[in-house]
Design goal:
Layout lengths: L1 H9 L1 E8 L2 E7 L3 H4 L2 H5 L2 E3 L13 E3 L16 E3 L2 E3 L11 H12 L15 H31 L2 H8 L1 H15 L6 H30 L4 H11 L1 H14 L1 H4 L6 H33 L32
Antiparallel strand pairs: 1-2, 3-4, 5-6
Length: 324
Amino acid sequence: VQEVLAIAVGGRRTGLLFEGDRRVELVVRLPETVRDSAEALANLVVPLPHATSSSDEFGRTVPLSALATIHATDSPFQFSRRNGKRLITVQANVRGRDLGSFVEDAQRRLQRVELPPGGWLEWGGTYQNLAAARERLTLVVPLAFFLIFVLLFSMFRSVKYALLVFSGVPLGLSGGIVGLWLRGMPFSISAAIGFIALSGVAVLNGVVMVTFVNQLRREGMARDAAIRSGCLVRLRPILITALVASLGFVPMALATGQGAEVQRPLATVVIAGLVSSTLLTLLVLPALYRLFTAWEPDRPLPQEPWERPADGALEVGGGEGGPA
């Protein structure tokens, strides 16, 4: 029966036809109108095996309907295997929510599904890339923040001022989170990268502010006066730094074409975070500076080593007759 169906439906090669230099294969099979008709296939003639006794007729045939039941049904069109085991792939496109929470909800619901013996579930595709990227970010993000703190400590040589400048990082992260919430965007890997970039710019604004205030205090200005003067004088540089970074990400925040799902979260985090970081740097950082230095005596700060005259150097002034 299988051989008859294979020839009738799939066809079988029976020879070659030569037309000059051209060779054409000869294939025997039923026409398409018959192959697509269940009634026509039911009347397909199936030869019986040769007679086994003198009473059997030699070469007797029966219709296929006497040997099989023919009906249309849904069945897999492809069987895939991995490592010798049958594999079924189910695909879905997530819209309107983040991929991680969708998979978590799906996993909780699938816990009630009893798989057949030897069956298993494996989550792949974009979620597999997300899980791998999340593992890398758990190492990269703390390392980036640690390196930022180390650089700040090496610059100020003080844990106090390093922590003061590093306080701009949570101020900027809060704005990025609010920006994602206002635009209805879920947290993603591109958003996490935006938080790392935002942290660098937020720390830069804090360095500009604190460095200038310390410079004024080294020159003999009182602490409160140095804080007020530093906020006013460094207002323009901080705003320019934030505007340059923010305006550069505006096209990405408004993108709608290919790759917009990656560009928009990153740009939204950077723009919203810079807005909050800039405002809070100008308002909160001076207050934090006053709190961090409240127990210190209000006197000029010591000069940095590179600002002091070298040992043994002699400063000589010129008289009326010219330089000496």
